[in-house]
Write a structure and sequence with these properties.
- By secondary structure, the chain is an alpha+beta fold.
- It has one domain.
- Helices cover 42% and strands 17% of the residues.
- The protein is built from eight helices and six strands.
- A six-stranded antiparallel sheet has the order 4-5-2-1-3-6.
- The longest helix has 14 residues.
Length: 178
């Protein structure tokens, strides 16, 4: 199971820049991708408001390996309707954030996975810098990545076997605890 887990959730397949990187959950793929009729400026505007809404802080999770990725995925789905739901994730490298002059602040996450919560950061919202980041990500051809329902079912199986708090908040031992 461990080898399958590492293979199915190889984080390097998500980001072309390697590890580590931050992931941002996207509600709808079209929020990031727009459509083929949109100009770059329209796509930047749409993505900046839909993927990075202006509410002061923008939630991201640091991913360094497959273990982090699976825990973040379980954590993100733990606050939704189903642990098996597909996820759309946008990867952002530390270099991307540095180039856009965006600041990060580690903060407690609000998922049910303790490990995912330990990887939670907020991007401090600066609309001009967010627009710069979105333009940069588009120019670098950053694509959103999908974790399918099938992959999420595998993630849930692994989380059950490790007694993850996202699966059972009464679990007395959890490998998620860091």
């Amino acid at each position: 199971m461990a080898a399958l887990f590492e293979e199915e959730f190889d984080a390097s397949t998500l980001a072309s820049g390697g590890h580590p990187f931050y992931v941002r959950k996207i509600d709808r793929r079209r929020h990031w991708r727009g459509d083929e009729t949109m100009s770059v400026d329209d796509r930047v505007k749409t993505a900046a408001t839909q993927v990075f809404p202006s509410d002061g802080k923008i939630s991201v999770f640091l991913v360094a390996n497959a273990y982090d990725l699976i825990r973040v995925a379980i954590g993100l789905n733990s606050v939704g309707p189903s642990l098996n739901e597909k996820l759309e994730l946008l990867c952002i490298t530390p270099d991307d954030l540095k180039h856009a002059c965006l600041q990060l602040e580690q903060s407690p996450g609000d998922t049910k996975c303790l490990h995912a919560n330990s990887l939670h950061y907020d991007i401090l919202d600066d609309r001009d810098a967010i627009d710069c980041l979105v333009r940069l990500l588009i120019s670098r051809d950053h694509k959103d990545r999908r974790l399918t329902k099938g992959k999420m079912k595998l993630a849930v199986e692994v989380a059950i076997k490790t007694g993850c708090h996202a699966i059972d908040s009464s679990a007395c031992s959890c490998q998620c605890e860091t």
